[in-house]
Design a protein that fits this description.
The protein is α+β, with helices and mostly antiparallel strands. The protein has helices at residues 38-46, 51-61, 117-127, 134-137, 139-142, 144-153, 183-197, 216-223; strands at 67-72, 78-83, 91-94, 101-105, 110-114, 155-162, 165-170, 178-180, 210-214. The protein has a five-stranded antiparallel sheet with strand order 1-2-3-4-5. It has a four-stranded mixed sheet with strand order 8-7-6-9.
Length: 224
């Protein structure tokens, strides 16, 4: 389990330092170099005048099941939000030098434009369900060698603490968030949720590898 409060070279995963006020400040971008924050990296790639655009998008998508942020290098370096199970890409949102938000829908092979982040939120609420069974389509792969593939993948769970409840979501997996009265309860429920998403036997849940990432609120609750 990774308590992300202070840098430690022996821990795998993102390191978060200091109190954070907005969801966008908690976004982890997976890189092979350094640990620039989400907004600082966006400003470096696209200019400081784009910060509000990236902040609004990060506030919307951070912790939303199935969404993750990454940097790509083909054909050029780009920061991109994607939706899909274990790294698959069913929806993409990246920066375009024009107002609003553009989402590429791979299934429809088309790009949709939204003038505001609220319009984008409404569309996502109405369309993410189309891929609710995507993990089931990966069942044959996940079940290989008595579920050894699924057990070896390793899943990252983001945990926060709010109003006496622990809340967890799984990165890169559209699993409904889980809430519980203890960190152990949430982790157990998340393991069960992952197994159910792939239609794996309940007994597989306890063998899944998970990395738990605590935000400042949950880290403070754990040590209080």
């Amino acid at each position: 389990m990774i308590a992300e409060t202070q840098p430690n070279p022996h821990l795998n995963g993102a390191i978060m330092t200091g109190p954070q006020s907005d969801p966008s400040s908690l976004v982890k971008v997976e890189l092979n170099f350094g640990e620039p924050t989400y907004l600082r990296l966006a400003a470096r790639l696209y200019g400081e005048d784009t910060e509000e655009w990236w902040k609004d998008l990060g506030d919307l998508l951070y912790g939303r099941p199935g969404w993750y942020c990454e940097i790509t290098s083909t054909p050029e370096m780009e920061l991109i939000w994607s939706y899909g199970a274990v790294g698959s890409s069913l929806f993409n949102i990246s920066y375009e030098d024009e107002p609003g938000y553009a989402l590429f829908d791979w299934e429809a092979d088309s790009t949709r434009k939204f003038q505001t982040v609220d319009e984008l939120r409404k569309w996502l609420d109405e369309n993410e369900w189309r891929h609710a069974d995507h993990t089931l389509k990966l069942r044959d792969l996940a079940s290989s060698s008595d579920w050894a593939v699924l057990k070896a993948v390793g899943f990252d769970i983001d945990v926060t603490f709010d109003d006496d409840r622990w809340i967890g979501t799984v990165r890169k997996l559209p699993v409904t968030m889980s809430a519980g009265m203890s960190l152990a309860d949430v982790v157990s429920q998340m393991r069960e949720g992952i197994a159910q998403a792939f239609d794996a036997p309940a007994s597989v849940a306890k063998d899944l590898q998970v990395r738990v990432h605590l935000d400042p609120a949950s880290a403070a609750a754990l040590t209080s």
